[in-house]
Each structure stands twice: as structure tokens, then as C-alpha cells.
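dumping these here so i dont lose them again. two proteins, back to back, each one seq then C-alpha cells. dont judge the mess
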Amino acid sequence: MADLPISLTCADYVRVLPLACGMVETPGITLTMLLGRSGQWTDRAEALRRATGDAGVTGGEASMAQHLYRIDRKDRSHVGLPVFPLRNLPGRDFYVRAGSGLRSVKELAGKRIGTYSVTASGSIWYRHFMRWNGLDPSTIDWTIGDIDQPFGLSSIVPPGAKLAPEGRSLSQMLIAGELDAITSPPRPKDYHPIKGPIVRLLPDFAAVEAAYWRETGCFAPQHLIVIRREVWEKNRWVARALTDAFAACETMFAAVQRSFPYATPWQEVEVERTVLHMGEDFHAHGLPRCAKEVDAFCAEAHRLGLTSRRVGVEEFFEEYLTS
């Protein structure tokens, strides 16, 4: 019997290269990974679009939020796998104007904050992080727009929020004093940790994020792998087979980081510190290991009014759990 052909889009994360290069075996599957190039954000956006919008591929890297919204609408066109190619801790993504005097998330209460979207996965985690810091996101005066250039994402403008003026980026508005802070996954082009004019709200973000992780257990998953439902229905075993393959890929990647820690001069120290804080499997895939984080994400989305009901982990990964 011929192997099942599977094609998945994904950004060019180093951690998926063992799978993309064929170093991880996928029994019964001929896997093609369609990767982005050079860490380009435009390529990442295209990978997300193709994963669910291109009938020529089986699936791929997709937004956690968009998968949740499909489920909320009873749209089961894509099957979510508990595989998370992109995780992030939120503290590093809060930026302010150099010399603003702002030094904590709680100080943002009532302030004017720019963000690229209120419906994206990262934005949901930012507000989860705000709550953990004792800040109610509803107190924020939100402006929605492009950080420096278009992300390629559409955004809903909720009551009380507004769009940035046409032709104005959020970074320009921050530097001009028209905003007090911005939240952004890519570093704004005018960011510099010392020279500014845009700096991080939390210069020692790692310590704050470590406390956040200790108390919440969330190394925030933002993207997951999805496959088209019709492929899964004909080959239900493929959901667990692909999840196992990505888990094996992560194990191989982690071993390389420990054996040859030369990406930066102090990578070995950082890897050791991360493992001491978060354990060996800090970038894990699968259930029940990752259930708590997914549940926290779904709960925050519902609290923000982005879903009509509270979706649970069992519904989020319904097909995978019945495979």
C-alpha cells in the first residue's frame, strides 16, 4: 500500500527542520513541508493563509485563535493537532517610548495602547498576561493598526477601540506621543534596547515571564498544526501519527541544542536555565501535557467576548481525541 502524501505549510522555524529534512521518519506518510524563507513575517502570514485556504495542501501551521473561532461557529472543516510550532511568552512584546517613565504592565491602566489585532492569538495572550499583572484590559484605550508595515491580517474593531489614521503606523504614533505603548510580536524597526526611540516596557522581561510561567503554567501556544477534515476522515490514524512525528522532531531538535550549543556564545547557559525553570519538555506537543495552556487560551478568548461560548480542550481537539 502506498504511503499517504501529506503537505504542510509552516514558517522556517529551526525546530521543525529535522522533520522537514527527513531526519525524522514518518511511517505510512510521504511528508512534504512547505517552509517559509529567512524568517520573513510575510512568509509566515502566507503559510497561515495556505494552511486553511489552499486546497492544494493538506494543512499546516494555523492560528490558534482562528481555529477556535471556527469551532465556535460549528465549522469542523479542519482538524486541530496538539502540535504547537510557535509559542511565545508575552512580556517581551510590550513597547513604550524611550523616557516615558512607564516600567510595569499595571501602569498601563487607562493608557492608549496600539496593537495589530484584538482577535489574533498573540493579542489574546497579551490580555491574559495583563490580567495576571493585575490590569483589566477593558481599561485600555485601544488603537488598531500596522506596527510598521501591514501584517496581512484583518482585524475586528471592538466597541471602544479605533483604527489608526490612514497612512500612520503605530510605531510613528508611539514616537509622536499619540500612544503610550504598543504590543507587537515582531520588534518595531525603531526599537533599540539602549538607543531607542522605542524600548521595551519590561527591560528584564525574562524574570517577569518566568514568574508568569510558574504561576500560570502557560508557555503561550499561538499556532497549531491543522489538516483538512476530508483527509482525516479517510485516514484517522494520521492525526496521531503526525503529532508523534512532530514530538520526535522536537526531541531531536532539543538534543542538538544541548549537544552543540553554539548558536550564541551563551546558549548553553540559557538552555540550562530554561530547563531548570520549565523542565526538559518546555516546548512540548501532545495531550494531556498541553491541555492546561489550551484551556487557558480558550477561557481568555471567551472572557474577552471573542467566542459565543466557552470551548473546552475536548472540543478544541475533538477529532484528535477520537482518532
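---- next one ----
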Amino acid sequence: MLASLSDILRKAQRGRYAVGAFNVNNLETLQSVMAAAEAERAPVIVQTSEGAIEYAGMEELAILAHLAAIKTKRPVIFHLDHGKNLNLVIEAIKSGYYSSVMFDGSSLPYEENVAATKRVVKLAHAKKISVEAELGAIAGIEDFVSVEDRDAHFTDPEQARKFVAATGCDALAIAIGTSHGAFKFKHESRLDFERLKKIAERVSIPLVLHGASGVPSAIKAQCTKYGAEIAGAKGVSDASLKKAVGLGISKVNVDTDLRIAFDAGIRKFLHDKPQVIDPREILKPARELMTSVVRQKMRTLGCAGKG
């Protein structure tokens, strides 16, 4: 069933667990995510990025997501992820496909981010659509930086309080040391938990952690064994995720882990069975690996059994 992001995250916030938000680009990825949600009896956020929409089409992805929501008893949120293009965000709202949208104005000057987010909130709330906003720079932050650099890029707790009050957004993505992609850190993940604690003390709405893929070692090993050049890939540890959830994170975004699993499954199959050309057979192992990754993530986040 299609659900409200605000309702699901408020429940997670009260229960001190987080709901996994998984990026989908095609049928196989969506099937993997939904199979995991069913197996773990978990609520799930199915999200499409601007890149996914460009690749597969907004309507096409929406049809798949809505069908998946109809076929399950698990709460399913269909979410627009990282909408930096304001026109696309408005299109998504007007389409009626999404139960929530994210407007990412984090690269804008603060006042411009506030103004644009307020506009999105007004349009979305009129259609009973939830809005996730972002404050702070998430991508490209190294794990060993000066205090000055961290303060310049990471979310300021007091500014977060003012931003939420000014915009009326339903969830807030914050920057505490994660980054997008497979190569997040040179060393082990180091998140600014003290900053997260201060933000959670000042902000009453659910908090969101982006760039939180873990890069599972077994999946990465299979991927590199069969030709992928990602030996240096590092993600956020399960221990760090659990601590972040305990301190107030209610939604966790995952994309890179699905990509690695998809790639690992296909690479191994093509290596082992070069005579097979049927895409249905080639894609099965990828789908199974992605389901395994999503199930593990749901257990780590504590949302297994909550749907």
C-alpha cells in the first residue's frame, strides 16, 4: 500500500529505528527491494533520482512502484530523491505519482534554500505530499578535515532549527560526514555523532542520512574478483549506522550497495556461463544479491518486523 513519508518516519522516530530508502532504476532493482520488504516485514521507501528518471522515465518508474505498492501489505513510500532541479520537483508534485518529494537546495545560499523549500512545501502539502529538504553539504567531504572545514560543510544545529521552522518541511537531510558514491572514505567511516545529537535536540522532525551505503565486503570481493576496479571502495559501517539511528536518524538512503550487488551478480554469471545470452537468466543472480543486501540493511536499521 502507498503510504505517507511523514507518517512512516514519525513512527520510526518514536520507535528509534530507521526506514531504508532504496534507489531504483529498473524492474529488477524494484523487485529486489520489494522482495526484501516482504521477507523482512518492513516498511520501505522506493525512490527515484533525477538520473533514474532520465534513464527510465518518471511515468514508467511510477507505474512499477504503484503496482508494487498495490501488491503488498507493507507500507511503501514512493519518493523523489535529491530533486535539485526545482522544475522537476514541481513536475513530480503535479504528476500525483509521488507520496513524497525531496527538494535539495543545499548548494544554494541559505536564504535561497529557505525560499525555494518553502515554495515546494506549499505546493506539496496542498496535495498531501511530504517534503524532505536538505541543509549542509553531503558529497565529497573527507573523513580527516579541519574543524573549520567541518563547520563550513556540515549541518549547523542552530541553523537547522531555524530552517525547519521557516520552511515547514517534514524531514531534514543533514550532513555529518557521509558522502555519495562507493569511495566515501580513505580510512574507516567517522561520523560527527556529537553534531547529530545537537541537531536532534533542536529539530523535532525526522532526520535523514544520505550517502549511507556500507559497501559490504563479500559483495565487493565478488565484484572485484570478476573485473570491477573498486578495491578502494569504503562505506559507512553497520556500527556507525546503528549509532546514528540511536541518536535520531529515521531515514537512511542506500544506492551504491545495490549497484555493487547488481554488478557483482552479472559479472560472476557471465564469467561462469559465457554461453548464456538470455537476459532473464543473466539478471537473476543480480536480483538475488540485491535482495540479500537490502534485507541485511533493513535488519541493521531496525525496521525489519515494523511493517
